[in-house]
Amino acid sequence: MPTVLVERGFRFFFYSNEHLPKHIHVEGKGGEVKIDLESLNLMYNYNY
To answer: In degrees, to the nearest 5, what angle opens at C-alpha 13 toward C-alphas 7 and 19?
Structure first.
């Protein structure tokens, strides 16, 4: 899973075999979210 950016304790990444719609995963602070890149809407929220 390639990391695009690490900023202020958050890691922005994607999986190489991802599905549509285009989105990015953001991990940090005890959880992970998935954000739609076109609308910037939250698609998924998971707390560890």
So the answer is: 150
